[in-house]
Amino acid sequence: MHAENAPPPGAAARCTDLSENGGAPRERWAHELGVGSAGFATHDLDTDPESLCRARAFVRASLERWGLESESCADDVALVAGELASNAVCHALPPTGLPARRPTAWLGLARQEGALVCAVNDPSPDVPVLRKAETFLERGRGLRIIDALSSSWGWSPACPGKTVWARIPVA
Question: Contact at 8 Å (CB) between 87 and 130?
Fold first, then answer.
């Protein structure tokens, strides 16, 4: 397990507010991560059954736009982003039968020197826990996959909820 899995001291004082910019955290996240807008992309998530499919398409389109679709890391990035998004949709968003009026969680991708950071901001304060994989269960392996494919991962408190992130090396 990576040491970055716990928030740094004083992390509670830094709080991303999703209501800023009309609910889009793009500029705020880019600023906090120290990346320019051209190296940052966001996509909304909700409980609509097609939300995860759209999130995976967003990741592939972002990688293509940045010229990274043929890199050896492209599949790892897509899988990690998909697992982060799936965890938010399955565990952090309130179940509803109707599409949300506005996004309730966000997926962000940030290009950094030698890496790509995938982050998901959701409204749940529940901390992600890396669990022991149960042999016969079909669920519960998402954070294990993220842990195996990323150079580091962790979470930070946000207002409301948390941001879970993973850093994937890019050649």
Answer: no
Contact call for residues 153 and 8 (beta carbons, < 8 A): no
**pTM for the full predicted model:** 0.76
Three-state SS string over the chain comes to CCHHHCCCCCHHHCCCECCHHHHCCHHHHHHHHCCCHHHEEEEEECCCCCHHHHHHHHHHHHHHHCCCCCCCCHHHHHHHHHHHHHHHHHHHCCCCCCCCCCCCEEEEEEEECCEEEEEEEECCCCCCCCCCCCCCCCCCCHHHHHHHHCCEEEEEECECCEEEEEEEECC
CB 84, CB 107: distance < 8 Å: yes
Neighbour tally for 162: CB within 10 Å: 23
Q: Residues, the chain, total?
A: 171
Residues 6+ apart with CB under 8 A from 27: 21, 37
Place of tokens 């507010």: 17
Token duo for residue 68: 């990274």
- How is residue 52 written in tokens? 């995860």
Distance, CA of 123 to CA of 94 (rounded, Å): 9
Q: What is the per-residue pLDDT across 23-70, written as a single tens digit (0 to 9) for each?
A: 445 566 565 655 566 788 888 888 877 888 999 999 999 999 888 887
